[in-house]
């Protein structure tokens, strides 16, 4: 095809030109007033004064792997379209970007390539930043946050110390994955099928190590309640969080150790053993206290302290318990504790039901966990599936204590419904389940052997990592003073550089004497620095607050600035972060609120989770060889086509199957926009600048109607549904109509002010989706300043309104014809149009019209006999 250079859309040239211009204007994407500090220490507390309403939009910050993938491109294109449109709508927009820069891959890379983690990470940051700039995302780089730099992670340490003061930090023994070959702790992702990722033949062990925890459970109820108010979050995310927090209401009740059983030793040599006082009461948690008269055994976790007590004078029991522990360990290592084959051992001891005085046998069972509830359960086989299975296997009594209200003889066990009546339950016989629960709880409280209790599935957050590339935990171990927090004025505890990463023999930091050997801040004696680092989810729990005040050296952020910007108006990211990141950051927000730093309870008002980018129906992966590189697409079709395709090819919340043909199609479309606009730009530029000069013109009414309908549709979509795919389709339709009117445009039949309005608005509508081309054409049309700051076009309802509408005409309920009438036609006019229609007349000829029903704007029904 012979095209002269003049009329060819050249994205490479256009995008290079604008990328350079934008790079030369660092305040282009800055919010008002600029967050750009004059010096590096900017914690003035100055209130933000602007007449514009604020809008805070962010996409979840990436891990700097070194390469953007298509999922990133799409995720950021969604947020970028929104940010640009909000700027154009006159909002004061904060649209930042940062790097979740700590984590294991940097250590792996260091091991593999002999590159220090810091160098590797910062190199990747620079590479990805270049990619982002090439694609033209509207980030204010002055607010960039890089979590692996001391100016950021010192505040992780500062928060850690504040939480410690509030009793939200503690240490306890906890199970970790341990590779005996590496002699180090492994992350869950380093355990593959129960084996070490680096030693395929080595079974990973679970070891008990002292670990640091954050008390997330202190906020369990608040985290749950807050979900009810988050109606700007996807329902699926709220449901996932509710399940994760897992609230159960029930009763804690004490069974008593039967006194006869406190005899140990063998039958030949009985020994009287005095149980410790705490062993005499065995606390269980149950959601079904109404079934307690049906409890026919008590089941203890193998790690329950009472089991250790029994085993201390019973070596046979000790051996059997060790087997159960082994089974639990294997199931944990295989990652599926729920699927464990249920085993138990009778201890020969008995417990007393506090309500009935009945003695029931005590068992140890491998499916009871010490870290859920109290580590002890009452087993009610008649009314619980799992207990039924266990009792059947071991021949334990199954005693029905709840009866259905109707069809009492047909009750099949286990009968698990709470819609029933108590039987075999002493004084509670005849009560309904719910009533019995209340009465039994009250009785327990009265006699001080139990109480109503709420428990959560949510656990405290284990933040210890025995690795190098993370935030050092700011504590010192002193032989004299125990745990000593690092004083604030000694922060940050800086990660040492040039360390040797072997991923063997424990934390690399423990092998750096300069780091480890310190002076105790309390007694001045020699002490040891903590060598654990923090989970990287700490970094991402509060980074978006730092964006509001990224250079602050005196505090994590200025409360006035965070107060202005928070909560985030729109947060965008993958649904894979629905649980951990979004629970941790909601927890962190509440902690900061209780520290008096912020006033918002939740970090983000609205959350959007985009779909995945796939290829040929499958997730892109190196092993499948179906990875599409953003760089390739941008080089071939330009950034505008690549990002616009990622918005056009599917609704943003759905998966997108990448088709290169589609990108080429979008590129051809942009080429048409370019040709059309450059061709008629001289006419547009010649138009008078006077406002509304086009109001008096008649030419081009149909095109203006299409334009104003398009503006209305896209504006509405940005506010709610975000079906950017249909927005792009609407722009395509508008361009089709403009092209179809080529003769009228060329002949001057359409007045210059209308041409100006049409082309200017087209370019403005395109700006959120194809920012490079829009900027180029804006300049071509003589637009002033950055298109980003030009006002978003307004739809005029009068102009958008159709002149004529179609009305269906039915005879006796059957569609006969369609008539065209003026859009504002009244019932009489519509009726007349229907009755004079050819087809209607033919059908009703010789018959009488009994009734005419007009539904204005919709239909006419004729009843004919
Ligand atoms: Zn290993
Ligand atoms: Zn000391």
Description:
- By secondary structure, the protein is α+β, with helices and mostly antiparallel strands.
- The chain is globular.
- The chain starts with 10 loop residues before the first helix and ends with a strand.
- 40% of the residues are buried.
- The model is unreliable at 36-47 (pLDDT under 50).
- It binds zinc ion (2 copies).
- One zinc ion is lined by residues 478, 480-481, 520, 522-523, 525, 527.
- The site of one zinc ion has 7 residues, from loops.
Low-pLDDT windows of residues: 36-47
Ligand species? zinc ion
Quaternary organisation of the protein chains:
single chain
The share of residues in helices is: 25-40%
The biggest sheet amounts to:
7 strands, mixed
Average pLDDT works out at: 90
Q: Please give the number of β-strands.
A: 36
Helix/strand/pairing class, anyone? alpha+beta
Please work out how many helical segments DSSP would assign: 26
Label the overall shape: globular
N-end to C-end Cα span? 64 Å
Structural Rg:
35 Å
> What percentage of the residues does DSSP assign to strands (E)?
15-25%
